[in-house]
Amino acid sequence: MNHEEKIPFWRDDRILKIVIQVALVAIVVTIFIILGSNLARNFQRLRLNFGFGFLFDSDRPASFKIGDSPIDYSATDPYNRAILVGLLNSLRVMINGIVLATLVGITVGISRLSENWLVRQIATVYVETIRNTPLLLQLFFWYFAVFLRLPRIENPLIFLDSIFLSNRGMYIPFPTGTLQTWLSLGFLILSAILGIILWRRQTQVIVQQGASGRVFEIGLIGIAIAAILVIIFGLDWQQPQFDRTALTFEGGLNLSPEFATLLVGLTIYTAAFIAEVVRAGIQSVNKGQWEAARALGLKPGLIMRLVIFPQALRVMIPPLTSEFLNLAKNSSLAVAIGYTDIYAVSSTISNQTGKSVEMLIVVMTTYLIFNLIIASGMNWFNRSVQLKER
Predict the structure, then answer these.
(1) Which of 79, 295, 320, 325 has the most Cβ atoms closer than 10 angstroms to its Cβ?
(2) What is the chain's mean pLDDT, rounded?
(3) Are the CB atoms for 89 and 340 separated by under 8 Å?
(4) Within the chain, which residues score under 70 in pLDDT?
(5) How many CA atoms lie within 13 A of 291 on its CB side?
């Protein structure tokens, strides 16, 4: 009678894996305990107190001004209000930067594969130049050589009688918060939802049934025209008015040179990397897909939109996630040009209060949350475009 030989525990893979994981957890916990105890001893030696209560103490005003403030803020507000302003400023740059960099990057990436020699070479020069130049140097160029070199506010550049450019920033029309504006925004949201539904339905009809999908295309064009008309005439636009006596603008939206520099710099820099991701993703699609789509009689635009780009997305999304995360982290370079983002505000508070550890934790936690949100959203998008196995 054969008995199964018992494996010694030091050779059992199942036991060894558990032991290794427990050992790693123990090492990590030990390191944190050592660092925490060292930090506590240093606080006691320097007679410092650890805590975040000072952020909400109304008797301790921030005592510093913030030039770019999307909400009401004064130097008499507590520190938590100043951090909120810095947080919103960071979000302004990140959200707008991601959207603009994606649009520019996709355009340049497709241009890199253009059959037009001039377009292809311009896109190549742009990508190779921007990718091989430090971002900080580019920010300095945009700030000192471009935006601060604009005409003085006494004689601003004027475009379309409503856009003003000067060394104090850009002043552009902006919708006011009236009922007309909110109703128009609601219509635009519904139009976007309906457009997505029609676009997906058109894709199914063309790919699965081989039909032209002309009806859906006409519907999409109609929705686009209606949305453009609502944007132009539906939103209650407030035009900036220039007071030459006081040398100030009233109404509209003011984009400071610091904000414009950071937004343009991050957009141009990140778009160069996104363009390479898009180019590589498109080239990863088998050439047989192009030939099959042409055999079906599809136009080049439909081939790219319905056949090639959806397949390339499965390859592009993971590296695109990294580029979006890099843009969010690179926004901390705002301190180099004087833009008051969350990092700049936290640095000022740290210098005033001596709460360097607390403010460092605030900044690290903020960027961690931002990046986790971006990564989670992109991971969800990645799962939605992957092939579903049955």
Answers:
(1) 79
(2) 84
(3) yes
(4) 1-7, 9-11, 203-214, 216, 246, 387-390
(5) 3
